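Renewal narrative, Specific Aim 1. Our central claim is that a sequence can be written position by position from structural information alone. The example that follows is taken directly from our test logs and has not been curated for this report. It begins with the structure tokens describing the chain, in the order in which they were read.
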């Protein structure tokens, strides 16, 4: 499944080149030219990693990294999202230190080879990727990944492959709301939402199968946003 990257780079030619190269390396990529646009996308369609150019019209790379880490009142995004700052040819040790102080995961100065950037991205993603758990418990739901066994209060539930993958994703953070875009990307590997009803239909079937008397409700629809497994 391809990782989703968000590129914040003000220079269109460089941004387009990065998008083309990284798509060729197997990533799903979205590019923007301003820091404010990057923050909006980080909130609405959370990426797996953000690449930040050295200077944007409304923020430096370090400043945008700091905003991603600190958050803003009334807004929600993953503050632990991996960030790589791409310096320019004039970047020096002061720029690097400031970027790391603002919370970036890596800093790469231009000029750099495309292969090195791809290697750095994959290295950061490996560092931040949680190791899959063999057994997951969410309320009365128990999932045994190696045997693909699912039970609710000890009662066995039979799920299809995609229903199980959807359940595992929701159970990884059971009270968190996963957007439909996130679920399509993580469970089905889609790059965009489009007009598909895939998430809704699978969520509906999963809800029915988990509906054991005296337990639940499970697979809660947050209208207009997505789904969570358990009430917060």
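The sequence written for that structure reads:
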């Amino acid at each position: 499944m391809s990782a989703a990257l968000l590129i914040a780079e003000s220079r269109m030619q460089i941004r387009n080149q990065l998008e083309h190269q990284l798509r060729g390396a197997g990533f799903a990529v979205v590019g923007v030219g301003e820091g404010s646009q990057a923050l909006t996308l980080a909130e609405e369609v959370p990426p797996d990693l953000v690449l930040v150019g050295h200077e944007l019209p409304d923020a430096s790379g370090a400043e945008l990294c700091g905003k991603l880490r600190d958050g803003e009142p009334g807004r929600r995004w993953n503050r632990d999202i991996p960030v790589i700052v791409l310096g320019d040819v004039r970047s020096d040790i002061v720029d690097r230190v400031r970027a790391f102080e603002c919370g970036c995961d890596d800093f790469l100065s231009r000029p750099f080879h495309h292969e090195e950037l791809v290697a750095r991205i994959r290295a950061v993603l490996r560092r931040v990727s949680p190791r899959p758990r063999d057994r997951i418990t969410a309320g009365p739901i128990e999932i045994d990944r190696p045997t693909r066994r699912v039970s609710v209060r000890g009662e066995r539930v039979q799920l299809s492959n995609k229903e199980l993958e959807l359940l595992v994703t929701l159970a990884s953070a059971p009270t968190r709301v996963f957007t439909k875009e996130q679920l399509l990307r993580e469970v089905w590997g889609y790059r965009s939402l489009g007009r598909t009803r895939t998430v809704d239909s699978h969520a509906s079937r999963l809800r029915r199968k988990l509906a054991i008397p005296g337990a639940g409700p499970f697979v809660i629809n947050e209208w207009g946003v997505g789904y969570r497994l358990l009430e917060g």
